[in-house]
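Hypothesis: this fold can be encoded by more than one sequence.
Test: take the structure tokens below, design a sequence, compare later.
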């Protein structure tokens, strides 16, 4: 009996944050390919210099992944495997009318599997995921979270929940398709087309299943 347990234990391969990011990247990019037209998909992943970017790589190795790995190692972040599987499943089964292509939305369909252990007002945090609120300020202290639609201040970082940004003193998702914009962050869909040094762009909706 002990031998069987040891053998089973030796074969067990734990599921970690890197496994989750890999599965989430596959789920998100597959949803984007299905919900976008080919022209939309190509346009989204082409930068201003005309270079093509890789969807999978952008999601699997986002700018915050190293900080999350460190937080897990320091025990300031708890990785919940059950929540991770639920997030992947949510993306695998999402309707095109609910899907958003921007990375900031990818864990708004579920409860984030990265559970911060640092209370609001405390420090020292190095990434949003270390905070119970989900928001680490520029002063490396955890901020109190602000729900979309409520007043906010962005003087110490973005305190807005659910993929919203702090714009004009309120938590908002950005302007709708058709509105003028200066940058992607001005738009709800994170896509501002045609903006230049001396001209405004236009907010565009992608991946709407049309």
């Amino acid at each position: 009996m002990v031998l069987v347990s040891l053998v089973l234990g030796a074969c067990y391969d734990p599921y970690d944050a890197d496994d989750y990011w890999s599965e989430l990247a596959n789920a998100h990019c597959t949803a984007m390919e299905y919900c976008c037209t080919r022209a939309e998909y190509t346009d989204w992943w082409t930068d201003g210099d005309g270079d093509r970017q890789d969807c999978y790589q952008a999601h699997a190795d986002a700018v915050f992944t190293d900080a999350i790995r460190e937080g897990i190692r320091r025990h300031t972040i708890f990785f919940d495997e059950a929540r991770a599987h639920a997030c992947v499943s949510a993306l695998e089964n999402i309707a095109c009318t609910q899907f958003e292509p921007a990375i900031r939305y990818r864990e708004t369909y579920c409860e984030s599997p990265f559970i911060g252990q640092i209370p609001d007002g405390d420090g020292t945090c190095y990434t949003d995921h270390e905070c119970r609120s989900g928001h680490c300020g520029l002063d490396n202290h955890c901020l109190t979270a602000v729900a979309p639609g409520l007043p906010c201040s962005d003087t110490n970082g973005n305190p807005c929940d659910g993929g919203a940004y702090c714009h004009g003193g309120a938590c908002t998702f950005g302007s709708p398709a058709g509105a003028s914009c200066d940058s992607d962050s001005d738009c709800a869909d994170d896509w501002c087309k045609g903006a230049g040094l001396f001209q405004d762009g236009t907010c565009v909706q992608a991946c709407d299943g049309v």
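Helices lie at 2-11, 17-35, 38-44, 55-60, 65-74, 81-92. The mean pLDDT is 86.
Hypothesis status: open.
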